[in-house]
Amino acid sequence: MIIVEPSFGLANRMRVIASCIRLNSKLNKEVTIAWQQVAELNCPYEDLFMPLPGLNVINKPGFYAWIKATQQSNALKKVSAAVINSLLGIDYCIKFNPLGNEVHKESEAAIFENVARYKNIYIKTCGEFGEKDDVYQLFRPIEELQQRIDERVSRYSANTIGLHIRRSDHRDAIANSPLESFFILIDQEIARSSETTFYLSTDDHTTELQLKQKYGKRIMTYEKDFSRNSSQGIKDALVDLYCLANTRKIYGSFNSSFSDIASRIYGIEIEFATRKSTTSQLV
């Protein structure tokens, strides 16, 4: 039995589930996804995506919170974890929470080694393990959400470019991808073609207003609930993600999993708007 608990927000969870698709494909074993509704993602899986082959999604049982990572800092904690996990029917537990967009190949090796050795494995992570590939195309939003995506995308031109401006609590994105960097890139695209339009995805209403005031009808958005602590807010975030994914290319925010996953759904070009990248273009 392989149980995987994806953590954090929507894009991070998609990373983990994509890794589970690879795991299922390579091992030919069903993987159970333990889905938990929390403040940063308060929506059931089945309200977002169609079922995925080889994956069984369940609501995370309360007792799973007691499962401990097998590798601990000292012998006493290691023994305690082993006893608790054994009582819960878990032979080995791996927990890792990498930062940024790094793919942890060593974690994949550890997972495969331990899956071969132990019968019941529990993995909790917000990170991706394994080779990057096109499995993101296997994700299918439920019909209701797909209809909203299609309606918005039908308004695009052949030269609609995606903008993902992450704000809220993402300090790295705010510090390294300021609005001025996006303005430079937008102005350059308009200079290349006066017909260029933009789909803007942002988690900040003020930023949305600023872009619309500056660029007017060139900026398209999806009217959404900005809250992540509501089912509607997460559904809207998924629509926003796929609207971004359907653009010609994306200008994304530094170290944002949302920008990264949007580009990988259909394999489109992405450039991260940073102080360094836009400064070099002005030299």
At a glance:
The chain has 283 residues and is an alpha/beta fold. The chain contains 10 helices and 10 strands.
Topology:
Layout: E1 2-6, H1 10-27, E2 31-35, E3 55-59, H2 75-87, E4 92-96, H3 105-117, E5 121-125, H4 143-153, E6 160-165, H5 171-176, H6 179-192, E7 197-202, H7 205-215, E8 219-220, H8 231-245, E9 249-252, H9 257-265, E10 269-272, H10 275-282
Parallel strand pairs: 1-2, 1-5, 2-3, 4-5, 6-7, 6-9, 7-8, 9-10
Q: What is the CATH C level class of the largest domain, in words?
A: Alpha Beta
Parts with pLDDT < 50 across at least 5 consecutive residues: none
Q: Please count the helical segments.
A: 10
Roughly what is the average pLDDT, rounded to an integer?
A: 91
The CATH topology of the largest domain is what? Rossmann fold
What string, H for helix and E for strand, traces the elements in order? EHEEHEHEHEHHEHEHEHEH
Terminal residue distance:
56 Å
Number of domains: 2
Number of strands: 10
Within the largest sheet, what's the order of strands? 3-2-1-5-4
DSSP strand (E) fraction? Answer: 15-25%
What shape does the CA trace take?
elongated
Biggest sheet layout: 5 strands, parallel
Rg estimate, integer Å: 20 Å
